[in-house]
Design brief:
Helix content is about 35%, strand content about 30%. It has about 300 residues and is of the alpha+beta class.
Length: about 300
């Protein structure tokens, strides 16, 4: 009887030990799953776009108003450093559709892995949807200096219900191309904002049709705005001569301004455009001569800079 009882006790003890081992295994499995989930969640908190060393190339391009060094950011977009004839700089990062929709971006320059030093915050920027993240002359000059010294640029922004996005732009090969950029810029024509701040295009009598000359003028204006990069808004004011009623001319001036707005948008203009009409109320010349009336049939395009918006 004591032998049977002893065996039963041994089986009970073995079952308890086996059960305890199973619980330990289950606990370890649960812990491993939790650690995996945590690490996956942590990894998903940031999405980094960074070219491999062999994919970092700066390409020089000459435009009508500025020369630029461009680096393709694979799977993200591209980065441009623009230089004008007078040495003024712009730095822009263009994202593929949907990757940047106007969030506040933290822009920094940081030492490369083999360098000492600290990360510096250059700017906090926010752009309208569809426009590139753009830095003006002061911040762009600091980017140029950082690249020339072998440092990297980063900008980080959040995405709702998605990971934070970090884009890193390396300076490898930049110093070798900087001299070519400066030589290219020195050969550009002299231009400044005041030359384009108020642009006029003219119309035939009673018409809203754009002539080939007007279209060329608007295309050149569009090229300047894209290069200059600090135009945040356009105001279009339509005008007429005094032929016809006041009400008719007010509507005609608005239709002319609307026609110009449509053409500018067809050329890729993404800035807000406000359409106005003065009708016959604001003539440039006397309406007593055909030449004067021809000068009064116009649309004036007013460029508003970022710091001019109240």
């Amino acid at each position: 009887m004591s032998v049977v009882s002893s065996r039963m006790q041994q089986q009970k003890t073995y079952s308890c030990i086996k059960s305890s081992k199973l619980q330990i295994k289950c606990s370890l499995l649960v812990l491993a799953c939790l650690l995996l989930a945590f690490s996956t969640q942590s990894a998903a908190k940031k999405v980094v776009f960074h070219n491999s060393l062999t994919a970092i190339h700066w390409k020089l391009e000459r435009g009508e108003f500025a020369c630029r060094l461009t680096q393709t950011l694979y799977d993200y977009g591209r980065a441009d450093l623009l230089m004008f004839r007078d040495g003024t700089l712009r730095f822009r990062v263009h994202a593929m559709p949907g990757l940047y929709i106007g969030q506040i971006v933290r822009v920094t320059v940081a030492p490369s892995p083999w360098q000492s030093g600290r990360t510096e915050v250059l700017a906090l920027r926010s752009e309208r949807r569809g426009l590139p993240v753009s830095l003006g002359d002061e911040a762009a000059s600091r980017v140029l200096l950082a690249f020339a010294n072998g440092r990297a640029m980063r900008f980080v922004y959040p995405v709702d219900r998605s990971p934070t996005v970090e884009v890193e732009i390396d300076s490898i090969g930049f110093r070798q191309e900087l001299g070519r950029l400066q030589t290219c810029a020195a050969a550009l024509p002299e231009v400044n904002f005041s030359q384009f701040a108020k642009t006029r295009v003219f119309f035939p009598e009673g018409s809203t049709q754009l002539s080939s000359m007007a279209k060329q003028k608007l295309k050149r204006l569009t090229s300047f705005i894209k290069a200059f990069g600090e135009v945040k808004m356009l105001i279009l004011v339509g005008h007429t001569d005094n032929v016809g009623s006041y009400a008719f001319n007010l509507r005609l001036g608005e239709r002319r301004a609307q026609r110009v707005a449509e053409f500018l948008r067809s050329q890729g203009m993404k800035q807000p455009i406000e359409v106005r009409s003065s009708g016959e109320a604001d003539p440039l010349e006397s309406n007593s001569t055909p030449e004067g009336r021809a000068r009064n049939r116009r649309v004036t395009i007013i460029l508003v800079r970022a710091n001019a918006i109240q």
